[in-house]
């Protein structure tokens, strides 16, 4: 699920700058003509500089040496200077004298300087913190429980342990040690990062970092809209997912972060005698490799009438972890190098069904990137980050279905998906991956918004994370946490300062828009996302109805089973201090209770 595309101007909005005169009068030519020439030149500069910067960042991400880090920081400094200069020039234009809506929107994009608004010393510090946090995460190693002299990485070793192990003590050890070696080591970095992001927000005329980080969604009420969307989904979770009185220990759910539970599917499926999807063993038996996984993904997109991967893709991509001892970012990502021909994927692929789905997802990003590669710089992106994730999902929608695996020879042809019990098994497996993900997809950025906005005290920022995990997900840490820890930093997107709400948004789009989204991919970011969603659905608002309808058969079955077996639904948390020791100076709300449908 990890898309990375290098955009210098990441935020949209309008900022008033004092002491600057508007450009253009009736005497010296129209403002619109001057603005159009300025934007054209600005986009040419940005394209050229972004191409160069992306190669530098790729080199650092794929080989985390000190030398490459310094080159990356120097590149960011140049890009920040360009962003600042173009932003200041863009603000001089009197937009009321311009009638072209596309031109006005581009000026807004250029005007919102974002982090580049920070004074030079603070900006350099921000970029250094950003680089250090990602490096801490990507180089973290955990001593083996059985042999402390052996160090294990998250990918592939720890991820495989969480996917396969049924030993609670082993899982608890690795859950705790990963957070010791990743999040805990960047706690101070994150605290400083909050202050710098909030300062940049104020310099841009915004309230705090939550507004700065959501500006590219072009909605002043976006955070409220996300809360409303989450409320629309909550009934599914109160009824269907957690059926114990207390929260579930987070280390027992088959994933380092308990963000999806699909690795539990083999022994949780409702009808054990009926088939469910799990083709990992078949992939091994048939000698699949990461290269074959990527080739099969390309074949799938070719069958949809989409273009093949370019030669640059196959020559430049990293599709499995190199064995030369280098440290690198293993989180899967798709890269656009802004030269119209070089698109790559970085993924430390292992041969599993889950990674095969990720391969198709990342190649879906690449297909989207190639589809808008002919557009101008400011339109070379998704309508918003959630659209990019949604398109990647929808382009690979058929992957993971029995019919597709049968075509690949990974599943027997006698699986009858029309059988009610088999269908419940398939829906249940999908729910363990996608439905279970939704609370996590919401809470990552909910947590950061709370920190930026002061809803939670920095002195109690880890206990606030634990609180949200309990309240929204219904999962609890296996060992008591404290304010010496920073568990949020154990997740890549927090360490790498990448927004996460995009995945929550994308899952709604998947069910709401379906294949209608595909008709819009060549538009890139040339239209505001609410116009795009209105074109597809008839309404600019996100609607959870289609998502809930998709899981209705499973919801009905679970209701019947819970009623028949007298199962308690929801979860209760009586005392936060059982799970996290808050600081004496901080403040944190303790409004826990049963998570019931509204």
Automatic annotation (TrEMBL):
Pfam families found in the cross-reference section: Peptidase_M2 (PF01401)
Carbohydrate attachment residues: 63, 315
The protein's required cofactors: Zn(2+)
EC number: 3.4.-.-
Active site: 362 (proton acceptor 2), 362 (proton acceptor 1), 493 (proton donor 2), 493 (proton donor 1)
Binding site for Zn(2+) 1: 361, 365, 389
Cellular component GO terms, alphabetical: plasma membrane
Keywords tagged on the record: Carboxypeptidase, Disulfide bond, Glycoprotein, Hydrolase, Metal-binding, Metalloprotease, Protease, Signal, Zinc
Disulfide bonds: 330-348
Signal sequence coordinates: 1-19
Cofactor note: Binds 1 zinc ion per subunit.
Gene Ontology BP term (one): proteolysis
Binding residue positions for Zn(2+) 2: 361, 365, 389
Keyword Methyltransferase on entry: no
MF annotations from Gene Ontology: carboxypeptidase activity; metal ion binding; metallopeptidase activity; peptidyl-dipeptidase activity
Binding site for chloride: 217, 502
InterPro entries: Peptidase_M2
Similarity-based family: Belongs to the peptidase M2 family.
Protein name per Swiss-Prot or TrEMBL: Angiotensin-converting enzyme
